[in-house]
Amino acid sequence: MSELKNRIRQDLSAAMKARDDVRKGALRMLVSAITYEERSGSQHELSDEEILGIVAREIKKRRESADIYAQNDRPDLAEREEAEAAVLAEYQPSQFSDEELSAFVAEVVQEVAGENPTMKNMGPVMKAAQARAAGRVDGKRLSTAVRAALS
């Protein structure tokens, strides 16, 4: 079993014992998503990198739901979704600051596109940047930074 998956299961057990409903609910949904991914397709145990991808996807779902609830005057549900996203964010590596992201993108653009980068290099640069970032930056934020660096 991967180290991250084991940690999530232990934290779920601790949340159940502590009767922390928000944490318990968020971790149960995460374990369920991990199990679903493991059983679908080629049926293999996920690596820590694949689990980080699932964590990022689940955080994105929670934040989108919170935005929708907030737009529809349901602050109670929006608050719960944000709390669950915060619980899941504990399992992600530390996120890039704006300065770190700019430096990271400049480095990747230089490696992939060379001296004269153009928007035609967007695909290869994004692919390389996502592989190297490994969950340290949201895809939308990364895309915006790459687009700015290439234009």
Characterization of the model:
- One of its GO terms (molecular function) is carbon-nitrogen ligase activity, with glutamine as amido-N-donor.
- This is GatB/YqeY domain-containing protein.
- The chain is built from 7 helices and no strands.
- It is mainly alpha-helical.
- The chain folds into 2 domains: 87 residues, Uncharacterised protein YqeY/AIM41, N-terminal domain (Hypothetical Protein Yqey, Chain: A, domain1, Orthogonal Bundle); 53 residues.
- Helix 5 packs across helix 7 and helix 6 crosses helix 7.
- The N and C termini lie far apart (44 Å).
- The mean pLDDT is 89.
Structure summary:
This is GatB/YqeY domain-containing protein. The chain is mainly alpha-helical and 151 residues long.
List the SSEs and their pairings:
Layout: H1 3-18, H2 21-39, H3 48-71, H4 75-89, H5 98-113, H6 122-133, H7 139-150
Annotation keywords:
151 residues; mainly alpha; Hypothetical Protein Yqey, Chain: A, domain1; 2 domains; 7 helices; globular
Label the CATH architecture of the largest domain: Orthogonal Bundle
Q: What is the highest CATH level, the class of the largest domain?
A: Mainly Alpha
Poorly predicted tracts of residues: none
Biggest sheet features: none
* Helix content, binned percent: over 70%
Shape estimate: globular
- Enter the CATH topology name of the largest domain: Hypothetical Protein Yqey, Chain: A, domain1
Look at the structure and name the CATH superfamily of the largest domain. Uncharacterised protein YqeY/AIM41, N-terminal domain
Question: Per DSSP, what share of the residues sits in E-state strands of 2 or more residues?
Answer: under 5%
